[in-house]
Amino acid sequence: MSMQVGKDDDDLAESHEINVTPFIDVMLVLLIIFMVVAPLATVDVPVDLPASTAQPQPRPDKPLFLTVKADLGLAIDNANIERERLAAALDAATKNDKTQRIFLRAAQSVSYGDLTDVMNALRAAGYLKVALVGLEARK
Q1: Which of 61, 85, 63 is nearest to 74 (CA)?
Q2: Which residues contact 40 (CB under 8 A, 6 or more apart)?
Q3: Which tens digit of pLDDT belongs to each residue from 118-131?
Q4: Closest Cα to residue 132, out of 101, 94, 109?
């Protein structure tokens, strides 16, 4: 018995084409995952907010300004005061009206800690309505 060894016609020919089917399958799976997850990732909570009928607060005719100068001195309107006499000076300026808003302004060089100390002194004096004043930025 002999076996004939001949040409092997069953050899697969090399294919130089890239099979993109697995790549497309992966991309479609990722697309579906992002389509499902994207709406869940938003923080938008639908809330039906009520409308406000409050009128804007009128600006006082003569606002009371407390100024913290660059040398950390204090002034009510244009009158210089000592820090120890802040409560008494405010009581005199507001006629003992603790509900009056105090407009606090400070030099740009005043540190945040020093400004907080003045705000704490206002709170200790009983003045809780404090508005911070700044300049409007020019474009």
Answers
A1: 85
A2: none
A3: 999 999 999 999 98
A4: 101
- Both tokens of 14, joined, read 């090399």
Which 8-state DSSP code applies to residue 70? T
State the pTM of this model: 0.56
Amino acid identity of 3?
A: M
User: Per residue in 22-50, is it b (16+ CB within 10 Å) or e — as a string?
Assistant: eeeeeeeeeeeeeeeeeeeeeeeeeeeee
The pLDDT tens digits of the residues spanning 75-118 come to 998 889 998 999 999 999 999 989 899 988 888 888 889 999 99
Helical H segments across 5-139, by residue range: 21-41, 86-94, 112-125
Number of residues that make up the chain: 139
Question: Residue 136 — left, alpha, or beta (φ > 0 → left; ψ -120 to 50 → alpha)?
Answer: beta
Distance CA 1, CA 124 (A): 116
Q: 11-50, pLDDT tens digit by residue?
A: 677 777 888 888 999 999 999 998 888 877 765 545 444 5
